[in-house]
Specification:
The protein is α+β, with helices and mostly antiparallel strands. It is built from 6 helices and 18 strands. Strands 13-14-16-15-17-12-11-18 form an 8-stranded antiparallel β-sheet. Strands 2, 4, 5, 6, 8, 9 and 10 form a 7-stranded antiparallel β-sheet that branches. The two termini are 37 Å apart.
């Protein structure tokens, strides 16, 4: 994707040889401008994972991450950092998000299909109500995250509105038509996961299925109907029933006051319609993570044993 190539230009230390790797290919990462540094692999909970060999790195070196960290042979999400030995920063440059993926779809075969290596990023959304900053669940919804980041980087969401607002439940946007019927010209497979639909969580909007009213899982047609529309959850006591039936793929880490302001906007048609004046998403900017600008984990990470 073009936005991945553009972000790669921002690397100061770690540069992958390409973006996608098949299971039998080495995951080669080139080291740039590293002085007295070591490689560090974390999971998305911030836990530092143990390496199988020497993690010291030098400028100009190329490292096979698959050989050094066997963990990346398992489906899941990981973060690769270059950490200075002198403690001058938590890490150098922009970390790499490594997502090891199985087949897409509800009936996909088991096993690793492909590994993607890209800059670890977040999104800042500017709206009528203020800025909203979002981090992503690369580890459990990598394809959905890809889709959202590509649309955001390509300007798809710029100027669209939060066309549907249900106070205490969610705000929904991302429809190019603006009436709830719009799609980006395609749909994506679901990635239902264990992340709860708590306050601030982003999840993909999709068609409903009549069977869901009785507690059943959505059928394939409804499950695979998401495209660009997403919603931000407001109150977990009202959104808990969405767990494992909708694709949670990110979370607001700053700007929930703006989300709540959008949710409190007056409704049209005496309170029975959408917002009388839908809030606009002016821009969505994809921002590479740095040590000074990192929403993904705290400095008190768990060391490897």
């Amino acid at each position: 994707m073009e936005f991945v190539a553009a972000l790669m230009m921002l690397y100061s230390v770690l540069v992958p040889s390409k973006v996608f790797y098949t299971p039998n290919q080495p995951i080669n990462v080139h080291i740039k401008d590293a002085t007295e540094a070591v490689l560090e692999l974390r999971d998305f909970d911030g836990k530092v994972l143990k390496a199988s060999g020497d993690t010291a790195i030098n400028a100009g070196q190329e490292v096979d991450i698959r050989a050094l960290y066997p963990q990346v042979n398992q489906i899941g999400g990981y973060i690769l950092c270059a950490v200075p030995k002198d403690g001058s920063a938590e890490f150098l440059g922009t970390p790499l998000a490594i997502t090891v993926r199985g087949g897409a779809g509800m009936n996909a075969p088991a096993g690793v299909m492909v590994t993607k290596v890209e800059p670890l990023s977040y999104v800042k959304m500017t709206t009528d109500a203020g800025d909203v900053s979002i981090k992503f669940y690369y580890d459990v919804a990598p394809n959905t995250v890809d889709n959202f980041l590509a649309l955001a980087a390509g300007g798809f969401y710029d100027g669209l509105t939060f066309h549907r607002v249900i106070p205490g439940f969610m705000i929904q946007g991302g429809d190019p038509i603006g009436d709830g019927s719009g799609v980006p010209g395609y749909t994506i497979n679901p990635e239902f996961n264990d992340r709860p639909h708590e306050e601030g969580v982003l999840s993909m909007a999709r068609q409903g299925d009549a069977g869901e009213r009785s507690g059943a899982m959505p059928g394939p047609e409804a499950a695979g109907s998401a495209g660009s529309q997403f919603f931000i959850c407001l109150d977990y006591s009202h959104t808990k029933h969405l767990d494992k039936k909708y694709t949670a793929f990110g979370k607001v880490f700053a700007g929930m006051d703006a989300v709540k302001k959008i949710a409190a906007a007056p409704a049209a048609n005496g309170g029975t319609g959408g917002p009388a004046k839908p809030a606009v998403m002016h821009t969505l900017k994809v921002i590479p993570v740095t040590a000074k600008d990192n929403p993904y984990w705290s400095k008190a990470a768990t060391p490897a044993k």
